Amino acid sequence: MAKGLDLDLVEVAPNANPPVCRIMDYGKFKYEEGQKAKEARKKSTNVTVKEVKYRPKIGKGDFDTKTRNVIRFIDEGHKVKVTLQFRGREMAHPELGSKILDNVLAAVGPAAKVDTQARLEGRNMTMVLSPDKQAQEAMKKAAAAAQHEAEAAVAAETEGEPDAEDEDIEDRS
C-alpha cells in the first residue's frame, strides 16, 4: 500500500504493544523534525555568567562604569558575578568591601536578585546576581506608562497654544 502511494512505512512507536507504524514520506518527516529542533535551539537562551571586578579603593567614575556594565548584563539576561579583590592591608577592612557590594546592589535596584550573598573567599569577596524577570517587566511597564503620560502632556500643551501664523493674521486685521 505504501509503495503504491510512493511513501514509506515508518515505525513510530516500536515499544508500544502492538508496535505503531505510519505511512508517510520519511524524507519530509526527517526534514520537518530537523526544522523543529533548529527552531527550539534558536528560542532557547543560554545564560552565561559575566564577571565584573571591583577594588576597595575604586573611584566614583570607575564604579559608575562597572555598575553600568552590571546593569547592562542583567538586562541582557545574564547572571553577574561581582568580585571584589583585596590586596595587602586592604584585607584588614572587609567591611569596606561589603559597603561597595551593597552600593552595587542598590544601584542595580530591583532588576536583579541575589543568588549568592557576599562572602569572603581568600582575598576575594564575591556575590552572584541574576535577573529578576518579573521586576524587569514591571519596570518596563512603568517606563512605558511614564512615556505615554509625557507624550499626552506635550500634546495637551500644543493644543492650547495658538499658532504664530494665526496671531500674525489677527494683528493685520
Considering the chains and any ligands shown, give keywords for the structure.
173 residues; alpha+beta; Ubiquitin-like (UB roll); Translation Initiation Factor IF3; 6 strands; 24% strand
In terms of topology, how is this protein built?
Layout: E1 8-13, E2 20-24, H1 26-43, E3 49-54, H2 60-75, E4 79-85, H3 94-108, E5 112-121, E6 124-131, H4 133-160, H5 164-172
Parallel strand pairs: 3-4
Antiparallel strand pairs: 1-2, 4-6, 5-6
Q: Span between N and C termini?
A: 94 Å
Beta-sheet strand percentage? 15-25%
Based on secondary structure, the structural category is alpha+beta
CATH homologous superfamily of the largest domain - what is it?
A: Translation initiation factor 3 (IF-3), C-terminal domain
Helix content: 40-55%
Q: What order do the SSEs take from the amino end to the carboxyl end, as H and E? A: EEHEHEHEEHH
Biggest beta-sheet profile? 4 strands, mixed
Cα-based radius of gyration, to the nearest Å: 30 Å
Q: What low-confidence regions span 5 or more consecutive residues with pLDDT below 50?
A: none
CATH class of the largest domain: Alpha Beta
Question: Major sheet: order of its strands?
Answer: 3-4-6-5
Name the CATH architecture of the largest domain: 2-Layer Sandwich
Number of helices: 5
Number of domains: 2
Q: Could you say which overall geometry the principal axes of the C-alpha atoms support?
A: flat
Q: In the CATH scheme, what's the topology name of the largest domain?
A: Translation Initiation Factor IF3
